[in-house]
UniProtKB/TrEMBL annotation:
This is Diguanylate cyclase/phosphodiesterase with PAS/PAC sensor(S). PROSITE patterns: EAL, GGDEF, PAS. Residues 5-74, 145-175 form the PAS domain. Residues 284-415 form the GGDEF domain. It comes from Exiguobacterium sibiricum (strain DSM 17290 / CCUG 55495 / CIP 109462 / JCM 13490 / 255-15).
Length: 685
């Protein structure tokens, strides 16, 4: 360590009224003044050459990280709210001023530490503060320092302060210290209040420079008293943290704004919206409008994401211009929001309609004229929501309810939606543990051979018995599972469970029994699904030729070539493929010819038409399946009229309540395990 530097600090430290010490790089003590002895209990003889004893052993590792980071930055700093150990074992909290020291090679060799005074310490050391000039000399080398008289007139400004602010000393001396403050600074009343209480003030200050730029200081202003307790001077100690402040502001902006549009993101909305929310009441309610672009994915898929991004930027600009005085935000993807202090439903509707018209004017991007529509969801606080988060969720719920009605809808939250929302949240939470809790189970509906009237196999159907809500319909919980990304693990469990059950029943009921299993589009695209099928085959418990995987017609609108390749892979493993609910989706003759399928399941809507004499479409589907040499299964057969009609066609199999509703494992084994498969009852539903 540079001895001349140590000597200059040690000379000042001996009569220094504040606790101060110098540490080597390895955190051993080099110098320790009398004020430090009085403050923390250890004598200089006890601590010199030893590790600094002030640190809590539990915080030692973290403190070392801070220490090495400080040396690396090579800058003076203040450490507010720092906790120290006293020799007695007590703990105390104070603010430290720390400055790095360097050797002759300009390498960090340690640091000077000084504890800034609390108000109690000031009162106890009033006489010592007359040695202020010694204090000034110590701080001159480590911070921006100024001394003001009792009225705040600048008596001294060190070179650090004049260098950073650009003011020559003669321009500062004799001036009120407020000349250093940015005109927008509003902290003066707080500083004066602290000084009147005989307390030091510490915090951030916006400092003006001669070239009218702004600097940010972390500053401390200490009132100084004479032996009679009369305030006669103030000591100003500041550290330039402008660069750090700018970095923090940039980081804060990134954290709270959408990267693409620079509008507030969801986190930013929750922070900024809290101001409006805290003022809201029954007499001063607020409304939240959420909206998104209908079929935005189609725009991205058709024109590319770069066009989609430019569309979002253009829309954000229109939104900002139209709602200049309002809180606007862009939480995610193509979802946007506006907060209004308007609750009259008619006024809200008129505002939303006007905004909708503004946003739906054509956008001209990269040579494309894009015309969009937007769907809106509106909720009011406090009548329809309990918190800001709740307001957001319920507006989102109203938005998606509007989408289910049609594009371009403006939808308010209704009581029915509220109940549906509460139920949905309850189901979503429960669904995450439904598999572990064994709340999910399979039932099995027999598939009947129309010629022999015997059971050819079963279709495995997923059921959920909720502990509080009872039986949950599949068309309610399966979409929730898809939204929560749970459908793939659930479906994979269904495949394994159904195949293991088939292996048992082929021994108990019939060796050529088959099993049909429904596969969702989400599961079909998952690589884990193929691995599950490979696992089933590798176990050699069943022959995959007896397992039919049922896909919905919607599979046809996925990436066609990839769909065909995946179908071929599944067939290569030995499984059969079926198109479920045929006739109600997106299939065309082109897809049917291209897809390597084995079976069509005719949707119940066409079977119901038999009793109405509407057989034309059904006959066409049967003829189509016959021409393509596909197995045909009629779903939802419930009447003898429908059964008789189907028996006279080329349809090979059927299932429906006329023969059996879905059965539990026990019911299947009781009904079919010890006798020949039953024939359909002759009943007309």
């Amino acid at each position: 360590m540079d001895r001349s530097t140590i000597s200059s600090y040690e000379t000042v430290m001996q009569g220094f009224p504040l606790p101060a010490f110098i540490l080597h790089v390895d955190l051993t003590v080099h110098s320790w003044n009398e004020a430090a002895e009085s403050c923390w209990g250890w004598s200089a003889q006890e601590v010199t050459g030893q590790l600094v004893p002030l640190l809590d052993p539990e915080d030692a590792a973290f403190s070392r990280q801070i220490w090495y980071s400080f040396l690396e930055k090579r800058q003076s700093m203040q450490l507010p709210n720092t906790t120290f150990l006293h020799k007695s074992g007590d703990r105390s909290t104070s603010t430290l001023l720390v400055s790095p020291l360097f050797d002759e090679k300009n390498e960090p060799s340690g640091a000077f530490f000084c504890q800034l005074p609390s108000s109690t310490q000031q009162n106890a050391t009033k006489p010592l503060f007359q040695g202020l000039m010694d204090l000034r000399y110590a701080f001159d080398q480590i911070a921006c320092v100024a001394i003001f008289d009792a009225r705040g007139t600048i008596q001294y400004a060190n070179t650090n302060l004049t260098d950073i602010t650009g003011f020559c000393p003669h321009l500062l001396l004799g001036q009120p210290w407020t000349i250093l403050l940015d005109s927008s600074e509003d902290v003066l009343p707080m500083i004066r209040s602290q000084i009147k209480k005989k307390k030091a003030w510490s915090g951030k200050l916006s400092i003006s420079t001669q070239d009218e730029s702004k600097k940010v200081f972390h500053a401390t202003l200490i009132p100084v008293y004479d032996v009679n307790g009369v305030r006669f001077q103030h000591l100003f100690i500041g550290t330039d943290i402008t660069e750090t402040e700018h970095l923090e502001q940039e980081l804060d902006f990134l954290v709270h704004h959408n990267e693409l549009t620079h509008l507030l993101n969801r986190r930013g909305f929750l922070r900024e919206g809290q101001v409006l929310f805290s003022k809201a009441s029954d007499d001063l309610p607020i409304s939240l409008i959420l909206f998104d672009i209908d079929r935005f994915k189609v725009i991205n898929d058709s024109f590319g994401t770069h066009v989609g991004d430019q569309l979002l930027q253009a829309l954000a600009k229109r939104l900002s211009e139209h709602a200049k005085q309002l809180l606007t935000f862009h939480p995610t993807s193509d979802l946007f929001g506006v907060v209004l202090e308007v609750t009259d439903r008619n006024a809200l509707f008129q505002y939303a309609r006007k905004l909708q018209q503004v946003l739906q004017r054509p956008y001209y991007i990269n040579g494309h004229s894009l015309i969009i529509s937007c769907t809106f969801g509106i909720t009011v606080y406090p009548s329809e929501a309990k918190s800001l988060e709740d307001l957001y969720r319920r507006s989102e719920m109203a938005l998606y309810a509007g989408k289910s009605i049609g594009t371009g809808t403006i939808q308010y939250l209704t009581h029915e939606m509220d109940e549906q929302f509460t139920r949905k949240l309850q189901l979503e939470r429960s669904l995450f543990t439904a598999l572990e809790d064994q709340a999910l189970h399979l039932v099995y509906q027999p598939i009947i051979n129309l010629k022999t009237k015997h059971v050819d196999g079963f279709e495995a159907l997923l059921r959920w018995n909720h502990t509080a809500l009872g039986s949950i319909p599949p068309d309610e919980f399966i979409p929730l599972a898809e939204e929560a990304a749970l459908i793939t693990p659930i479906n994979n469990w269904v495949v394994i469970e159904a195949c293991e059950r088939l292996a048992l029943w082929q021994k108990q009921i019939a060796p050529d029994l088959t099993m049909a299993i429904n596969i969702s589009p989400h599961q079909f695209q998952s690589d884990s699904f193929v691995r599950t099928l490979q696992h089933v085959v590798s176990q050699k418990k069943i022959d995959p030729r007896f397992v039919t995987l049922e896909l919905t017609e919607n599979i046809a609108i996925l990436q066609t070539q990839r769909t065909i390749e995946r179908m071929q892979l599944i067939q290569a493993l030995g499984f059969r493929l079926s198109i479920d609910d045929f006739g109600t989706g997106y299939s065309s003759l082109q897809y049917l010819r291209a897809f390597p399928i084995d079976e069509l399941k005719i949707d119940k809507v066409f079977i119901d038409g038999i009793d109405l004499g509407e057989n034309g479409l059904l006959d066409s589907i049967i003829q189509l399946g016959q021409n393509l040499k596909l197995n045909l299964v009629a779903e939802g057969v419930e009447t003898t009229t429908a059964l008789s009609y189907l028996e006279a066609t080329a349809c090979q199999q059927m299932q429906g309540f006329i023969f059996s509703e879905p059965l539990s494992v026990e019911e299947v084994e009781l009904r079919f395990g010890s006798s020949n498969p039953e024939e359909p009852d002759n009943k007309d539903n």
